[in-house]
């Protein structure tokens, strides 16, 4: 039985706590947050307000990081120093340079995993299998994240609106879709992008972005995100091959053939307990990570894997600043 601790008891922590408590592989023994009132969110374990005190006292096997983005790398390094495996919420870090600090940690035998739960969706797995089994030739993709985030969202947690705190809306709202685009389209090559301020919100980070992304083998993808809409539309992901078009939308994977026939291939279980856009795959990702620890396998989303989406975001930011095409940095 793995001894588990959680650092940060903000919004997303409720999803992690629910999975940990149901797991047959793990036991929640400690939680930490600087806000003492958060102890009520984890009444069934020891509560701390100091991370290092918790790590030194509890001898944990695994730590979940549910923290503001700028704390992911330093807290992962600290937990690794105390011989803990780490599961961090996205993004891995604020940039590739930040995330690369976790490539060679002090104790490399302890795993560091990143929570890209949408890789564990049934729709994602089904499409991966189809593309692999049919050896379909991908020629392009499209990703749309059309959401709403108002000033109240940023005011509630001011780090979200700062470059040094969150890294921007690409890291905050869009990174899951960028991760899936590169998963299906292949190694990233270059991009031309613009980061935009379409609203009058008092934030440093962009509220919108648009990009033309190039991947190996002349695969081209279009990406568009915004927080300026009136509601949260379904994230849309489209992958085009020489034979058909695949679309993931509203939790369903469909295929449209050249003759116009459209068929449903897979559906994701809806998330009725927490925010719908979290998806329903946190449990599968967390349990798979626990199993990888117990069996000492590499079946988890590693630091090098998580750096791929950060490389695309870095290139988009640089392209917007330079007003030019930017090549991959890794």
Core attributes:
Gfo/Idh/MocA-like_OxRdtase_N, 15 strands, nine-stranded mixed β-sheet, alpha/beta, Dihydrodipicolinate Reductase, domain 2, 2 domains, NAD(P)-bd_dom_sf, 330 residues, Gfo/Idh/MocA_Oxidoreductase, Gfo/Idh/MocA family protein, 10 helices
Compute the number of structural domains. 2
Low-confidence stretches: none
Structural class, by secondary structure, is alpha/beta
How many H/I helical runs?
Answer: 10
How much helical structure, as a percent, in the residues? Answer: 25-40%
Number of strands: 15
- Biggest pleated sheet: 9 strands, mixed
- Quick one: CATH superfamily of the largest domain? Dihydrodipicolinate Reductase, domain 2
CATH overall fold name of the largest domain: Dihydrodipicolinate Reductase, domain 2
Q: Judging by the overall fold, what is the CATH architecture of the largest domain?
A: 2-Layer Sandwich
| Proportion of residues in extended strands | 25-35%
Topology pattern, helix = H, strand = E: EHEEHEHEHEHEHHHEEEEEEEHHE
Instruction: Specify the CATH class of the largest domain.
Output: Alpha Beta
Strand order of the largest sheet: 14-13-12-11-7-10-9-8-15
Mean pLDDT: 95
Shape: globular
